[in-house]
Amino acid sequence: MSKAPVKKVVLAYSGGLDTSVILKWLQTAYGCEVVTFTADLGQGEELGPARKKAEMLGIKPANIFIEDLREEFVRDYVFPMFRANALYEGQYLLGTSIARPLIAKKQIEIAEKTGADAVAHGATGKGNDQVRFELAYYALKPDIRVIAPWREWELGSRTALIEFAEKHQIPIAKDKRGEAPFSVDANLLHSSSEGKVLEDPAIEADAMVYQRTISPEEAPDKATFVEIGFERGDAVSIDGQALSPATLLTRLNELGRANGIGRLDLVENRFVGMKSRGVYETPGGTILYVAHRGIESITLDRGAGHLKDELMPKYAELVYNGFWFTPEREMLQALIDKSQEFVSGTVRMKLYKGNATVVGRESKNSLYRQDYVTFEKDSVYNQKDAEGFIKLNALRLRLLAARNQSLKG
Asked: With 50 as the cut, is the pLDDT of residue 1 above it?
């Protein structure tokens, strides 16, 4: 049974070679009207050329959407994830993963606004992003038509893309005519590099791969100290100055870059089943992660903190695999947000040659009691109480040992 024709499609559009080819391919293969959506997530690229290129390819000005999403991205996606201290496979701060649901959400909103019956993305059939985009699309609009060109067309190589672009008079940047040494994805939280020269995990990444941080070896010989203020688990100030979420993360990125912080060379397990090697730079996010754990260390109850740590891998896996708009992620988020009720205060960080270290933490909600932990004489803790505590916890161990000894005898 053939599918119904597509009338109008909203394309996640960067203005680069791939998405420009996709734009023209949608027009020729589907004969449909195309709406472009370009998101400013802090990737550091000028977005004006994307508008001009879309217009040159025949897109009506009313069908070109460019939005600055930096504040929404950090406030509603990055910060909630950081409240969970989310690390995929114990290392990855999920910079690419957390951006996809926001882009997908905006595509669906634009589809509803413009009357589009389909959405499209430029993710390949081998990666995680296709899953993240499409799970979000279907969660937000279950009857939406999804077009994934890399799973449909015959353009299977960079050469084929360039030939298609030349045939359809799509401008190609000079550096695109040769093979790009690796693929890059970036936003305000991180940059991700993978593929080509990075595919062999046994070979150290070349210095040119790192674009957001100087090397730790080249970082200043003098440490940088910074104080980060938190309210209910979210960073709100740097050195006493209140900042918006995106402005704060931008400032932390600058500090992290200057001190060589946030580099990660990782072999990870993709959701689709294969292992892949990626080189990530998350300068501000790394500082924020360490600082958040620092303020939690004095404000979060042991039971709550340990439960959070037990649930964190599940939360991180949901984000990585694209299950942001799901009941289980929202349930975990509610639990995590409840845990942050008293996570307020300040953390003093020392930044030095690739390291972000907590050197001080203070909160009016602190559970740390010096009068209990002091090595000096105190009047609040009876050390004799520990004997009964230990014996009760040892009871089952003593019974086990006694049984085993009797069986040996």
From this structure: no
